[in-house]
Amino acid sequence: MSAAPRSRAQRRRDTEHRLAHDIDVWVASASADGAPYMVPLSFDWDGESLLIATPADSPTGRNLAATRTVRVGLGGTRDVSMIEGEVDVLEIDALPRERGDRFAARTGFDPRAPATPYRWFRVFPRRIQAWREVNEMPGRELMRDGRWLV
């Protein structure tokens, strides 16, 4: 028997906690012709956007640069926040040093160091859904058009 469904306000608090404390997300992108691709990547949340980094010439890097859209899965399948977002693409040296240092400290990886050219990708959430079990499917939408609904 599953627990009683959380309120939407609690789901928002839980999602914001995950954004502030988790380190990894599943990043789903698609090529310009619609071929899907999904990878786990580390991220940093600054209260406004998720910052991720991946090689510029990787399938994810190419997809995000081409389409400027992404879907991110945060958490496990029985406690997930799904984030659809718009993507800003930044060259690796375009981010303020302090922000890159924060990413490196949080994730344990500094994408400015490898010889392989990386890019930064800032994901601005446009839609967020959160649920645990089927009893939380109603009311799972917490953000629409970049604005919190609760």
The CATH H-level superfamily is Electron Transport, Fmn-binding Protein, Chain A
Structural class of the secondary structure composition? alpha+beta
**CATH class assignment:** Mainly Beta
Q: How is the main sheet built?
A: 9 strands, antiparallel
Q: What is the H-and-E element order?
A: HEEEEHEEHEEE
Outline type: globular
Write down the Rg: 16 Å
Strand content: 35-45%
Number of helices: 3
And the CATH topology?
A: Pnp Oxidase, Chain A
How many structurally independent domains?
1
* Average predicted confidence as pLDDT: 96
- Residue stretches low in confidence (pLDDT < 50, at least 5 long) are none
Q: How much helix is in the residues?
A: 10-25%
Find the count of extended strands (DSSP E, 2+ residues).
9
Q: What is the annotated CATH architecture?
A: Roll
What is the terminal-to-terminal distance? 27 Å
Oligomer: single chain
Protein name: Pyridoxamine 5'-phosphate oxidase family protein
Pfam family, one: PNPOx_N
Domain Pyridoxamine 5'-phosphate oxidase N-terminal: 25-131
Organism: Actinomadura craniellae
